[in-house]
Amino acid sequence: MKVNKSFIKFYNATFKFILKLGGLDKLIEYFRKVCPLLIEDLDAFVAKDGISGAARYWNKVLPAEHAEYDLKHDDKELVLIMHRCPSVNALDEPCREYCRHCSIMYGDLFKKHGYKFELQKRGPDKCTIKIRRAE
After folding, report:
1. Which residues in the chain show pLDDT less than 70?
2. What is the pTM of this model?
3. CB 133 within 8 A of CB 115
4. Strands annotated E in the chain
5. How many domains does the chain have?
6. How far apart are the two ends of the chain, measured CA to CA in Å?
7. Which end of the chain is less crowded, N or C, counting CB atoms within 10 A of the terminal residue's CB?
8. How far apart are CA 23 and CA 26, in angstroms?
9. What are the pLDDT digits (tens) for 45-69?
10. Which residue in 104, 102, 108, 105 sits closest to 128, CA to CA?
């Protein structure tokens, strides 16, 4: 499975369109309504096996997308270091809020399952994700 560049370009254009017409609040609303549909498989892995399920999911999906990443986890925490995001790299001009959809869709999913989610952007195609049980 490699990154579907046409799909990525389509939703990047959609993000830009919504941002231009409705502003950031409307874009965030869109992320909250649509993004959960994109990660139903991850939701099932997390519901069944928590952090270990998320690790299994990403270790299956990310290599197939040719992502450059490191992932470490134990029973309490998962750390995903994205060295090169394949989606961002498929775009000539990413929406300035492009990476926010990851923060919202994954953040909402993990919160639903009782986890704290943190995404730290480290560059245009680099980030670190930390997930741990909420206290």
Report:
1. 1-3
2. 0.89
3. yes
4. 68-73, 77-84, 115-123, 126-133
5. 1
6. 36
7. C
8. 6
9. 999 999 999 999 999 999 988 899 9
10. 102
